[in-house]
Amino acid sequence: MNNSIIVKRRRIKPGDAVLTLLINLSAAISILLLIGIVGYVFYRGIGVINWSFLTTVPSTMNGTFGIAGNIVNTLYMIILTLLIATPVGVGAAIYLNEYAKPGKIVNLIEFTTETLAGIPSIIFGLFGMIFFGTTLGFGYSILTGALTLTLMVLPLITRNTQEALKTVPDTYRSGALGIGATKWYMIRTVMLPSAMPGIVTGIILAIGRIVGESAALLFTAGSGYLLPQTGKAMLDKIMQPGGTLTIQLYLSMSKAQYDAAFGIAFVLLIIVLCINFLTKYLIGKLDVSHR
Question: What are the pLDDT digits (tens) for 236-270?
Fold first, then answer.
């Protein structure tokens, strides 16, 4: 008898086959939906995109309709929101993970953070308009919108940072403390660099939330679209109304300007895709565990 290897094939149960088929079908439907939405928006919006559309503002006298002012307002909103939310969110995560003792206070903070993440954005807009706009006197402005968005993205940054810190092995902590490092020095030089991919992921996801938000900004930031002409005007712009790309998209649709709306949607999709690619690139660069 020749030496041979007999491979016994495991029989596939009918239930497993059906489940596998349903999983593959669900994945295919998701991919087709994404391709369909992106493809349709690209098809309707690509013809609108030109240099004038990207570099001018709406003007009846000049006969132009551009989104340059809205792009600048979106950048203002992103930068200002992250400048406020990132230090607070990362600091809160460090406190919860490294300093706070497990107990009722920590549970309350985590419950509050999770609750904030589930509140509809329109309620944030109503609160931001009343508190930041009216009570604090900021009115309809980019600052009011940024402070409102800070409340919305704070849970996202905090939770991502907290989970990233939890993935750092305890041996890193004990090793750093064992050689005489202070706790803050250990956090600054060991914990944060090791958790940086997760932190960056949270920040970039927050950028995506900021770019795509519209409901809250309708109540807080207004719909201004003019470009600042001087350096002083760029600083003053923070306290002036400023409509982002999503606000202009909503206004265009409400006025039945469908071509312009699809053009703006095209730009938004490009921004979202760039954010996703940037996320993957930065995570690969910052992932010290694979070096």
Answer: 889 999 889 999 999 999 888 889 999 999 999 99
Give the integer Cα–Cα distance in Å for 197 and 94.
15
Instruction: Tally Cβ neighbours within 10 Å of residue 279.
Output: 18
Give the C-alpha distances (Å, rounded to integers) separating 66 from 1, 46, 47, 110, 223.
82, 14, 14, 43, 14
pLDDT tens for each residue of 104-159:
888 888 888 888 888 889 999 999 999 999 999 999 999 999 999 999 999 999 99
List Cβ neighbours of 44 (8 Å cut-off, separation of 6 or more): 258, 259, 262, 265, 266
Distance CA 179, CA 144 (A): 47
Q: How many CB atoms lie within 10 A of CB 129?
A: 22
Asked if 151 and 135 touch (Cβ cutoff 8 Å), the reply is no
Please list, in sequence order, all residues whose beta carbon lies within 8 angstroms of the beta carbon of residue 100, skipping any fewer than 6 positions away: 106, 109
Its pTM stands at: 0.85
79 contacts: CB under 8 Å, gap ≥ 6: none
Q: What is the pLDDT of residues 110-125, one digit of tens each?
A: 888 888 888 889 999 9
